[in-house]
Design the sequence.
């Protein structure tokens, strides 16, 4: 479970229905469910290295369920949740930073080795590419503001596929100045009918922020791109 969900879980824990429970035997399915939920939460707390005192945690649940006067004021409870959120945010930032550093190092090492291959070309920006198929005779070459139609396959350095227009059996269309820098530059090297393989350093892709769950921070990306058509060719 992600750090960002921990606070929600803890809030829910205070309102779990009262369940008759025996340590020697589960009386019904709800007992079994309750125990299963407890093991899940316990593992989450342990795995995320949250230094909760289990006795204090249990006492808070019991007091909230029993309707007793709580041992902390609502202001103190709110302040504690703010402290927990701060701890979680700091951990997320640290993990993000560690991932970004590792990905940057792996990408730099890969690109350095890849550049030594005779079939790989490199531009001044650091973009690397391989010509898989030359363009057709007389095919148009797009400009930075051109709208194009392409097929593509995107993978991480470990071979994980994160996107493919081929899988959808549907080419995609876009303006070159509205995509990542590696695509904007790379497609201008191609003409209609060409198929290139791009090796895009993170600074020409999604950078330190990554993109959603599929692409982490500072990831070097590999794309096979087929330029099907230049749909518009501004002067």
Sequence:
């Amino acid at each position: 479970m992600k750090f960002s969900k921990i606070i929600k879980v803890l809030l829910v824990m205070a309102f779990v229905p009262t369940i008759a429970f025996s340590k020697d035997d589960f009386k019904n399915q709800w007992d079994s469910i309750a125990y299963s939920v407890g093991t899940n939460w316990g593992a989450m707390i342990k795995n995320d290295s949250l230094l909760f005192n289990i006795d204090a945690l249990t006492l808070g649940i019991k007091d909230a369920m029993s309707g007793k006067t709580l041992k902390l004021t609502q202001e103190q409870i709110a302040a504690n949740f703010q402290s927990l959120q701060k701890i979680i945010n700091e951990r997320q930032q640290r993990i993000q930073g560690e991932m970004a550093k590792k990905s940057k190092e792996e990408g730099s090492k890969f690109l350095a080795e890849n550049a030594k291959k005779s079939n790989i070309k490199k531009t001044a920006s650091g973009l690397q590419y391989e010509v898989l198929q030359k363009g057709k005779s007389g095919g148009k070459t797009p400009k930075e503001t051109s709208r194009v139609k392409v097929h593509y396959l995107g993978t991480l350095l470990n071979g994980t596929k994160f996107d493919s227009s081929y899988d959808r059996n549907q080419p995609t269309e876009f303006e070159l100045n509205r995509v990542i820098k590696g695509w904007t530059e790379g497609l201008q090297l191609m003409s209609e009918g060409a198929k290139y393989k791009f090796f895009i350093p993170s600074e020409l892709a999604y950078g330190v922020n990554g993109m959603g769950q599929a692409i982490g921070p500072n990831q070097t990306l590999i794309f096979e791109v087929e330029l099907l058509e230049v749909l518009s060719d501004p002067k």
User: Anything to note?
Assistant: The chain has two domains: 3-71, 119-232. Residues 119-232 form a domain with the Chitinase A; domain 3 fold (CATH 3.10.50.40).
